[in-house]
Design a protein that fits this description.
Strand content: 5-15%
Radius of gyration: 21 Å
Largest sheet: 4 strands, parallel
Helix content: 25-40%
Structural class: alpha/beta
Oligomer: single chain
Distance between the termini: 32 Å
Number of helices: 13
């Protein structure tokens, strides 16, 4: 397994470089790093959510490069599969809203509705009047340009149209390039979106997963640990000539999926840690549920409000139902203040999402005047929000405006050092 100790932030990178080049003080005399409450004892790692979408169109070349320049520890892509079997990077299973597809007459006839099963409890998702990745060929995808989501008026719009949609292979090449050129490792953390949708109509029911596994293996971020059906992927043409790493070292890797069956498959077939994305599965927030997740997942990632309002209040607010007797038999819902401790005791790391740019609403239930049950804690600033989660000991955070998050992380680290 690849092991890497993350560098604190863009700000700390600059300070470190200046100190090493300008100071004659031996590095050995530096104070030891303070111990955090994370499972590793190291500082919380920052995952650039869709790259750096606070400033660049999400999942674009510019977004990924900016995430690297700002000091993200991991750079996140979301994966979809085209009609002709190419893995591409796009957050949604559809393409409206963040691309110019509505302005391309040649693709108008591909607009449709789709319904698919999206989680282990069999819940369905339906999307109407959209252009779906699964219905377009890569050649048609290449016609599109990425736009910044227009509803976030504070985000720069002047990069709209500059970037096309990347393939998964191109994303991995970008991360390899920034690793070499910036001289530090960056983690890759691909999310497999809606496997049941992308495996529909394929030659077998794990086609999507195996396609992703083979690609990640080719680029050196995965080892395959169990037989997969390579014969069904002889058409997969991966880059033969990889840029030499030289003295650079590839960063860590992790899989993500909301589909627990897919997550389990990825864990069984590679040596790459799996992030179980869980938001509306009540059983997952019980002691027995964590035991079940620990059987295949190294990291649990869930919506941040579950750590503030608590699982029960959060699930009730969104009208998620459960069998009271089943939950009681599984040990009952874990209190929000105990979630990290209970997960860590099972060897599971925590990765809440999403920590937005401070110009955006933080989106906690306790901020809604119509919510009757108020949490005892309700963050009023970005610093108060992040410090709450740092105190809890979460191991990763999905963040937007990485510079802002990095700066606050460095401030928190300095406070720990002063208190030691």
């Amino acid at each position: 397994m690849r092991v890497w100790s993350p560098i604190a932030s863009t700000a700390s990178l600059a300070v470190t470089a200046a100190t090493v080049s300008a100071s004659s003080t031996p590095l050995a005399s530096a104070s030891p790093a303070p111990k955090w409450n994370t499972l590793s004892g190291k500082m919380t790692r920052l995952v650039g959510h869709r790259g750096e979408k606070a400033f660049m169109p999400e999942h674009s070349l510019g977004s990924y490069w900016q995430a690297a320049l700002e000091g993200a520890d991991y750079i996140e892509p979301d994966l979809g599969l085209t009609k002709d079997g190419h893995l591409i990077v796009n957050h949604n299973e559809y393409l409206g809203g963040t691309t110019n597809i509505a302005r391309i007459p040649e693709l108008a006839h591909l607009k449709s509705n789709k319904t698919w099963v999206y989680d282990v409890d069999g819940r369905e998702k339906t999307v109407y009047n959209e252009w779906f990745v699964a219905d377009l060929t890569l050649e048609q995808i290449r016609m599109l340009r990425i736009n910044q989501a227009s509803e976030y008026t504070w985000r720069p719009q002047h990069f709209n149209g500059y970037f096309g949609i990347l393939t998964f292979e191109e994303y991995l090449q970008v991360v390899r390039n920034v690793t070499i050129e910036l001289g530090r490792p960056f983690g890759v953390i691909p999310e497999l979106k809606s496997p049941t949708l992308y495996n529909r109509g394929r030659s077998y029911d794990r086609y999507f997963e195996d396609r992703a596994i083979l690609t990640l293996e080719h680029y050196g971020w995965a080892n395959i640990t169990r037989w997969i059906n390579r014969d069904q992927h002889i058409d997969l043409r991966l880059s033969v000539k990889l840029r030499p790493l030289g003295t650079a070292v590839l960063g860590p890797s992790a899989w993500q999926s909301f589909d627990m069956d897919s997550a389990r498959y990825l864990a069984q077939h590679t040596d790459v840690p799996v992030v179980a994305l869980v938001e509306q599965l009540p059983w997952a927030f019980t002691p027995a549920g964590l035991d079940r997740l620990a059987g295949f997942a190294k990291i649990l990632s869930t919506w941040k409000d579950i750590f503030v309002a608590g699982p029960e209040a959060y699930l009730r607010h969104y009208n998620i139902t459960w069998d009271e007797q089943d939950i009681e038999q599984m040990g009952g819902f874990i209190a929000p203040k105990d979630l990290v401790r209970e997960a860590h005791s099972r060897g599971i790391e925590l990765s809440p999402y999403t920590f937005y740019d401070s110009r955006q609403d933080m989106a906690y239930m306790c901020q809604d005047d119509n919510v009757e049950s108020k949490s005892k804690f309700c963050p009023k600033s970005k610093a108060e929000e992040l410090f709450y989660f740092f105190d809890m000991g979460v191991d990763y955070m999905f963040v937007e405006n990485i510079v802002e998050a990095s700066t606050l992380r460095l401030q928190y680290d300095n406070q720990l050092a002063q208190a030691a």
